Amino acid sequence: MEKYRVEIISNQSVEEDIIELLEETIPDLEYTLLPTVHGKGRRAKKLGTSTWPEQNFLFFCYVEKPVAQKIKKAVEEVQLKFPREGISFFCVQEAEL
What is the DSSP string of 31-61? Predict the structure, then answer.
């Protein structure tokens, strides 16, 4: 079955909400979490400095399509709860070599 790389980049303020929901929804999910990610989005910089104090986190995993769809649905649920937090979801199909 084809694999997909799923990425979530979001404000650290909703990290716990997202991870808890994913672990409830997909208990055996294996993932990598980079807890502190800096950058600039459409609305703001998140650099962890006194001028730009907020920070993001990056979550990623490699899963089959049905699991990627469950992750997307969970992210959409958190986006509805926190519409101003800039939660981004990306999904890319693994290339065949």
Answer: -EEEEEE-EE-SS-EE-SSSSS---EEEEEE
CB 84 within 8 A of CB 1: no
Residues 37-56 pLDDT 10s: 988 777 777 777 777 778 89
In this structure, what token pair is assigned to residue 27? 């208990």
| H helix and E strand count, the chain | 2, 6
- Kindly state the helix (H) or strand (E) to which residue 32 belongs, with its residue range: strand 32-37
Select from 75, 69, 76, 61 the least CA-distant residue to 28.
61
Spatial distance between the Cα atoms of 52 and 31, rounded to a whole number of angstroms: 28
Q: CA angle at residue 86 from 80 to 87, to 5 degrees?
A: 65
- Which ranges of the chain would DSSP assign to H, the alpha helix? 15-25, 65-81
**pLDDT tens digits, 12-26:** 999 999 999 999 999
